[in-house]
Write a structure and sequence with these properties.
Layout lengths: L2 E2 L2 E3 L2 E3 L6 E6 L2 E10 L3 H18 L4 H17 L1 H12 L3 H21 L6 E4 L5 E8 L3 E5 L7 H12 L3 E5 L5 H13 L7 E3 L4 H10 L5 E5 L2 H11 L5 E5 L4 E5 L5 H13 L9 E7 L3 H12 L20 H17 L2 E4 L18 E4 L16 E7 L2 H8 L4 E2 L1 E5 L3 H10 L4 E4 L15 E2 L12 H4 L2 E8 L13
Parallel strand pairs: 1-5, 8-9, 8-11, 9-10, 11-12, 13-14, 13-19, 14-17, 16-17, 19-20
Antiparallel strand pairs: 2-3, 4-5, 6-7, 7-22, 15-16, 18-21
Length: 495
């Protein structure tokens, strides 16, 4: 019998008030039920928000270094249970075990980084323009944070958001993706075991329409951190306007790897295979476009097709699997629809293009790694996010043309250039419109202590990861202390 899971509200594990449930299933073997979860509604969200609001008044007064101590304990527990979490994650969302271990490691790194920030929530002191007067700016917590996360990184992304939020003194109402609720629940269990007080973190399971909307529209939630589609991000912005919530959006991408004629082709080949087909292409930073210099086009394509056709599909728990399934049937249908769109637009499939069948794959949502050539920059497969193992290849004749082609989307998350020429590298760093640029590295591989996010319709200007995320989860407060013993009027008495 599948394990039954619950919401956590005010430190108590409980069913949805309606009693309704939904299932989480293994995308590599859809007949396997990973767990049964509460199908929550606005009523459950209201209870979670009330608990978080009450807990905030005590939690904001806990010294930040003490909050950091709890973060380090969370990191220790994640280390101890890394393999258990990784195996559960592979069963629940499909990516191979090496990748799920990396996902957990990112949560570990984020926990330890947050622990150190408990002693580094720096403010600023500046000289006052008046004598015997002190001026400083300090960080203060904001209130209740609504955290809404996707399924592709069910450990890393929730930790990117929740750990800084809580370390900064906020409390949290967390809605994980319905495709990966078991990993999210295990994370929250570990947070409670490490000493996070009741009400500081609350998890409410359910769909985006019922639970996500209730969080976004709730008047007692002060800020929203969301990772997902650009369309949903725009709707969240509209829904948050009436209450002037602070909103952080990390949205879509259409990332490209440029390979110049002077590049190390073997290195670039390893990069494009990892960037395009790692996580079955289900990353916002996945390499969806390959921009190849004309002089190396034919040679590199021969290398690429040969390697891509040998990639081993299967259950991510098996040691020889290189590419797992898509997360669900709907995602596979989306991928297949874009394969059909690309063909109708006149692009040619030179590898893959089909639903993967046989060899033990029929019970899951597998799709062959697919490569399109003869792709024009104006085609939909060159401009729209697919979120699957589909790579569009474009031919260029110069770095300038390559950068122009790369920038030709509404997105601007990640980018990559392979070259041995330092001048080309720095020109690209300057001219590429993206939040992340890699040189001689694929478009995936962000590190927990660096800012993460994009430009254009990839987000709304905030960054996750590193030191920058703490600017989102805290408020600046200006403080003046006048010890002159008399009224001093700034801008008046001193000029």
């Amino acid at each position: 019998m599948a394990q039954k899971y619950h919401n956590l509200i005010d430190g108590k594990w409980q069913d949805a008030r309606s009693g309704e449930t939904f299932e989480s299933r293994n995308p590599a073997n859809w007949s396997e039920v990973v767990g049964v979860f509460p199908k929550s509604s606005k009523v459950d969200v209201d209870a979670a928000v009330a608990a978080a609001r009450a807990a905030f008044e005590k939690w904001r007064l806990v010294p930040a270094p003490a909050r950091g101590d709890i973060m380090r304990k969370i990191g220790d527990l994640l280390v101890q249970r890394k393999e258990e979490i990784a195996r559960l994650m592979t069963r629940e969302m499909g990516k191979v075990l090496a990748e799920t271990r990396g996902d957990v490691q990112e949560g570990i790194d984020t926990a330890y980084y947050a622990g150190s920030e408990g002693r580094r929530l720096f403010g600023k002191t500046v000289p006052s323009e008046l004598p015997n007067k002190f001026a400083m700016a300090i960080r203060v917590p904001i209130g209740v944070a609504g955290i809404i996360t996707p399924w592709n990184f069910p450990m890393a992304i929730p930790t990117w958001k929740m750990f800084p939020a809580i370390l900064s003194g906020n409390t949290v109402v967390f809605k994980p993706a319905s495709d990966t609720p078991a990993v999210a629940t295990l994370l929250v269990e570990i947070m409670m075991e490490a000493g996070v007080p009741p009400g500081v973190v609350n998890i409410v399971h359910g769909g985006g329409g019922a639970v996500g909307n209730a969080i976004v529209q709730h008047p007692d939630i002060d800020l929203i951190s969301f990772t997902g589609s650009t369309a949903t991000g725009k709707q969240i912005t509209r829904d948050s306007a009436d209450t002037l919530k602070r909103v952080s959006l990390e949205l879509g991408g259409k990332n490209a790897q440029i390979v110049m004629d002077d590049a190390d082709l073997d290195l670039a080949l390893d990069g494009i295979l990892w960037g395009a087909f790692g996580t079955t292409g289900q990353r916002c930073t996945a390499t969806s476009r390959l921009i190849l210099h004309d002089k190396v086009y034919d040679k590199f394509m021969d290398m690429l097709v040969g390697r891509a056709k040998k990639l081993k599909l299967g259950d991510g728990l098996k040691a020889d699997t290189e590419v797992g399934p898509l997360v669900n049937e709907g995602q596979r249908k989306t991928v297949q629809s874009y394969v059909e769109i690309g063909q109708k637009e006149g692009a040619n499939i030179i590898a893959g293009g089909r639903i993967a069948q046989g060899g033990g794959l029929d019970g899951g949502w597998f799709h062959e790694p697919t490569i399109f050539t003869d792709v024009r920059p104006d085609m939909r497969i060159a401009k729209e996010e697919i979120f699957g193992p589909v790579l569009s290849v474009l031919r260029v004749r110069s770095l300038e043309e390559a950068v122009t082609t790369l920038n030709n989307t509404v997105y601007g998350l990640s980018s990559s250039l392979y070259t041995r020429d330092i001048n080309k590298a720095f020109t690209a760093i300057r001219d590429i419109r993206a939040g992340i640029t890699y040189i001689n590295v694929p478009t995936i591989g962000a590190e927990a202590h660096m800012p993460f996010g994009g430009v254009k319709q990839t987000g709304n200007g905030h960054r996750e990861g590193g030191w920058t995320v703490y600017d989102f989860f805290s408020e600046w407060k200006a403080v003046y202390v006048d010890y002159s013993g008399k009224l001093q009027r700034a801008q008046i008495d001193n000029y």
